[in-house]
TrEMBL record:
<dbReference type="GO" id="GO:0016787">
    <property type="term" value="F:hydrolase activity"/>
</dbReference>
<dbReference type="InterPro" id="IPR029058">
    <property type="entry name" value="AB_hydrolase_fold"/>
</dbReference>
<dbReference type="InterPro" id="IPR000801">
    <property type="entry name" value="Esterase-like"/>
</dbReference>
<protein>
    <submittedName>
        <fullName>Alpha/beta hydrolase</fullName>
    </submittedName>
</protein>
<dbReference type="Pfam" id="PF00756">
    <property type="entry name" value="Esterase"/>
</dbReference>
<dbReference type="InterPro" id="IPR050583">
    <property type="entry name" value="Mycobacterial_A85_antigen"/>
</dbReference>
<keyword id="KW-0378">Hydrolase</keyword>
Amino acid sequence: MSWQPYAARPDSTVTGTLLQWENVGDANHAARTVLAWLPPSYGSQPEKRYPVVYFHDGQNVFDAATSYNLSEWGADETLTALAAEGLEAIAVGIPNGNERRYHEYSPVRHPGFPPEVEGGGGGDAYLVFLTDTVKPLVDGHLRTLPDAAHTSLIGSSMGGLISLHALLTRPDVFGGAGVMSPAFWACAGEAFDRVRRSPPMGGKVWLDIGGREGTDHPERQQAYWDDAHAMRDLLQQGLGERLRFQADPEGIHRETAWKVRLPEALRFLLDEQV
């Protein structure tokens, strides 16, 4: 197996060079097709190495044709535009495990699930899958800068939670976390407890939130907003200028909102001067 050209569909919306590696899995994770987007200069500058940004929910990152929400993050178009500013990176999309998404992205079990149901708690195993299976396929076959300072993760909702969890628990591997529209309520405050218990954080955190997350559940909508601001205050104590926070009162819980905020998030995570 190896990286192969992306199997585009007639209605695909991919910009630039996208590769795929099929049947990537381990003992705890069903096989899935991992995607890797290459920056514009990759083919013309054979000696150059690039930072890497890992995206959760990878089926929604590059191609609306594969998105289960019929909309995409537009990471390929955003990174193409950022390349013109001198910021280039390889972007890797790891698709979620469909009905196991919550389990994979949650560091703790949800107290409301009975013991026989996989109700979270797979977050650490997912990070092992990412660091021990996915990352070697990227670093071993593509021209990356593999150190933590040049390796970031980004995700939304539960994907935001697992990105922050990775920065807290694996600072040897990851140096940046994009935490978009985090669903802190879904893990009963675990993230706050872990931040308080952890040693001073290294790296950088992009944190954002919309004012219209969870519009069908007014209490949950308020929880999204309040928890994000509380986490901002907590992280600010240790990160200072290495934290960037953005709140959009009109932002919804959807790829269209994350697509709008993505350029600034990637500028922050990829800027080596911060």
